[in-house]
Design goal:
The protein has one domain: Response regulator (Rossmann fold, 3-Layer(aba) Sandwich), CATH 3.40.50. The protein is built from 5 helices and 5 strands; from the N terminus they run βαβαβαβαβα. The chain has a 5-stranded parallel β-sheet, with helices on both faces. β3, α3 and β4 form a beta-alpha-beta unit. The longest helix has 14 residues.
């Protein structure tokens, strides 16, 4: 699995990389702007990401804006729904409003921080990623 972890917090980035590396190759981005560029490059190179785990609160572009631009790019490329990258939004803000907005923009799951690794493993299984 090809995984992109988008997280501005160094410790969270390291934790997610260590946790998810058992499932595939992990790359990281510190902000949404970099994540969009990495996503587009991965698609153009024929090695798209299977999963993006992305924080909501980030500098430059937040997770919402980043997700919106990723979905717009996929639409421009003519992606069918099943070709879209699976995006799991993460946040320390556990509110239904945040989750609802993330789902409206096209995420497949929303989870609160701190990440519960057993729950996250179950989520990856439900999404047929592992």
């Amino acid at each position: 699995m090809n995984i992109l972890i988008v997280e501005d917090d160094f410790v969270s980035r390291k934790f997610m990389t260590k946790f998810l590396s058992k499932y595939g190759t992990c790359q990281t981005a510190e902000d949404g702007e970099l994540a969009i560029n990495m996503y587009k490059e991965a698609v153009k190179s024929g090695k798209p990401f299977d999963l993006i785990c992305m924080d909501i609160l980030m500098p430059k572009l937040d997770g919402y804006e980043t997700l919106e631009q990723i979905r717009k790019f996929e639409e421009e490329q003519g992606f069918a729904r099943q070709q879209e990258v699976k995006v799991i939004m993460t946040s320390g803000m556990d509110t239904s409003t945040n989750a609802m907005k993330a789902f409206e923009l096209g995420c497949v799951a929303y989870t609160s921080k701190p990440i519960d690794i057993v729950q996250f493993d179950n989520l990856l299984q439900e999404l047929h990623l592992i």
